[in-house]
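Anyone have tokens for CPBP family intramembrane metalloprotease? Sequence:
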Amino acid sequence: MNREKKLKNPIASFILLTNIIFLPLFFLVGATRMLGFPAWVFDVMHCISAWSSTFAFAALFKKIYPGQRFIQFVKDKFKNKLKFSVILTVSMIQAFIFLIIMFLVSNNSEADSIFTISSWGMLIYFFLKNLLSGPLGEEIGWRGFALMELQKKNSPLKTSIIIGFWWGMWHLPIWFTTGYVGIDLIKYILFFMISILSTTIIMTAFYNLNQNLIIPITIHQFFNFFIGIIKGNLIDLIMYSAIFYFAAAVLIIIINPKKVLYGKEDTNSINEKHSMIP
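Reply: yep, here.
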């Protein structure tokens, strides 16, 4: 019998350590920009800083799950077979939102192009850079651990709101590098938090339907990637995202497919699966 002492408040410890690790890395990212380092150095540091949640989870892992191996834990998050219907549904939802936002921005834009990227090479580079930072760097900790751990004692919907809030607050230092002040900064923060809370609810619903970390990674990737390639006012882009992702989240809450958001039976079965890890 394993008698290693477990961490009493793993979620709180994870969130705290994630922020402690992120702040110095974030300042290093800013330093590379201010000191005039090449763009690729900035991109590398930016990607590394996004992995702060994974670094925090790895550092705490032995105290959270005594006797288990971190690498095996991560592998298990990808072992379930992907359901084509789930991947197709999340892709269609986000593609639809992207097309609506693109249409709205194009009607309000006087620029020759509504896209920030003009070549396939740069598009592929941006896609991979985005994937290596946010989606891959953040989802192991926030969704692979925190979301599933918190669902052991709370409904998926309540868990989504809690995790979504703290995930959003983790971005706080970034808010003050946007250049916005006053009412513009308030609007940016408000729309950002609505977007991230709504996206978290969508992630939870579809992750619980498939139990493969590829699902939240895909949702995260499409969210960042689609916003990044549209040329337009950032506040407008975040506002449109907040509106349409919120609408999608509300629709999913109402439909509640297979009771994955607040159904007692399904919540308990999810908790049992994650409490019986060998």
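The CA atoms of residues 155 and 262 lie 5 Å apart.
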